[in-house]
Amino acid sequence: METVTLEIIHKDLEFVKRELMEIKKHMVDIDSIMTEDDYKALQEYKIEKSEGKLTSHEELKQELGL
Asked: Where are the domains of the chain?
């Protein structure tokens, strides 16, 4: 049976830390992934915008009396 020393634990932790840093470098930001629903909503927005159906923030505030 191998004796686990603080030196072995330290080396193992350093290895895990390096591996974790490498994984983090290659992770995808989940907020940058567009789902099918996101894509459909974006397409609808573009159509409504081109047809002039959208209300600006300022117009909405006026309508609500804010």
From this structure: 6-64
